[in-house]
Amino acid sequence: MAESRKEQFRQRRTLLPLFRSWYGRERGTLELSAHSAGPVSAAEVMKELCENLIDRDVALYITLETRWKEIIPGKLAACARPARCREGVLFLEVRHSALVRELTPSLDLFLARIAAAVGSDEIREIRLVPAGSLSRRK
């Protein structure tokens, strides 16, 4: 099992004086690097650090927002845009309140396309809201 970073640093602090006393100050530091863990990609470290920082709903919203034109092609994508995701409900913001009635029959198509793009368990309901009526804050 891999050691945690904290344990690795603790081990380095313990071993460094031993290596320096055995090999000398300069050579001891170099020898310690040979006994350290291998390189780790910066992307892996950032992913590990940021994994728990972002809320699942926010991550889903970002995915839908960035891929919206792929998921819903054509003029429909321009009529309704993702505004917020919360607990499996996607709020789509429409440009005009009349579009709420016009787009309601298309919600099953939207759900099917979203399920194909991001997974079937992520979004279970879509609600249409007129532009500006949904606060961006929780």
Describe the protein's topology:
Blueprint: H1 5-23, H2 25-34, H3 42-50, H4 56-71, H5 75-79, E1 80-86, E2 89-94, H6 98-103, H7 107-118, E3 125-130
Helix pairs in contact: 1-2, 4-7
Could you explain how this protein is built, in words?
It is built from seven helices and three strands, in the order H-H-H-H-H-E-E-H-H-E. It is an alpha+beta fold and 138 residues long. It folds into two domains: 5-50, no CATH class; 56-130, DnaA, N-terminal domain (GMP Synthetase, Chain A, domain 3, 2-Layer Sandwich). A three-stranded mixed beta sheet has the order 1-2-3. Helix 1 (5-23) packs across helix 2 (25-34) and helix 4 (56-71) crosses helix 7. It is rod-shaped.
**What name does the CATH topology of the largest domain carry?**
GMP Synthetase, Chain A, domain 3
Query: What is the first-to-last residue Cα distance?
Result: 40 Å
What's the helical proportion of residues? Answer: 55-70%
SSE topology string: HHHHHEEHHE
Query: What share of residues are in beta strands?
Result: 5-15%
Which of globular, elongated, flat, extended, rod-shaped describes the shape? rod-shaped
Low-confidence stretches: none
| CATH H-level superfamily title of the largest domain | DnaA, N-terminal domain
- Give a count of the beta strands, DSSP E runs of length 2 or more: 3
Question: What is the annotated CATH architecture of the largest domain?
Answer: 2-Layer Sandwich
Main β-sheet, spatial strand arrangement: 1-2-3
| Mean of all residue-level pLDDT scores | 83
Q: What gyration radius follows from the Cα positions, in whole Å?
A: 26 Å
At the first level of CATH, what is the class of the largest domain?
Answer: Alpha Beta
Which structural class fits the helix and strand makeup? alpha+beta
The DSSP helix count reads: 7
Largest sheet: 3 strands, mixed
Our count of domains comes out at: 2
